[in-house]
Specification:
Layout: H1 2-30, H2 37-46, H3 50-68, H4 74-96, H5 102-124
Length: 147
């Protein structure tokens, strides 16, 4: 139940972020200089970066979730890991390709999200009681019989 609620919450955050970037892209398609002439040259990029916008919002959500759940040590660990993963992947993409494509940028952010969601939900999940491998012996004899 809790996992499905988190999934729905994350899907809604991603959808709202994607719709926001789509709205900006549509507005710039209709009025390219709406945000100034400098932004007009980059306007086509807005519509190609749905994943980037959604993942940025989701990474912020993960950070806030860890804080709200009082996982104070998990928050900097997840945030630092996200930064290292994103930096490493961006470095690799930039070194392998002279042109940064929207697809490669979206892939970098999608992989960063996957790392973040796995780490965050592992930290947020309630701890399972430790299993020591001990089993209680089964009653093999009836109460009245001699052992």
């Amino acid at each position: 139940h809790s996992a499905s609620r988190r999934f729905v919450t994350e899907a809604l955050i991603a959808a709202i972020s994607a719709m926001g970037i789509a709205a900006v892209g549509i507005a710039l398609w209709i009025y390219p200089t709406l945000l100034g002439r400098n932004v007009a040259t980059a306007a086509p990029l807005f519509t190609m970066l749905f994943v980037v916008a959604a993942v940025r919002a989701l990474l912020e959500y993960h950070s806030e979730l860890l804080f709200a759940m009082k996982r104070y040590t998990g928050q900097p660990i997840v945030n630092t890991t996200n930064a290292v993963v994103k930096l490493t992947l961006l470095y690799g993409v930039l070194m392998l390709s002279p042109v940064l494509s929207a697809g490669s940028l979206n892939a970098v952010f999608a992989i960063t999200y996957l790392v973040s969601v796995v780490m965050t939900h592992m930290i947020v999940a309630p701890p399972k009681p430790p299993s020591l491998g001990l089993r209680t012996p089964a009653m093999t004899s009836s109460p009245g019989s001699a052992a």
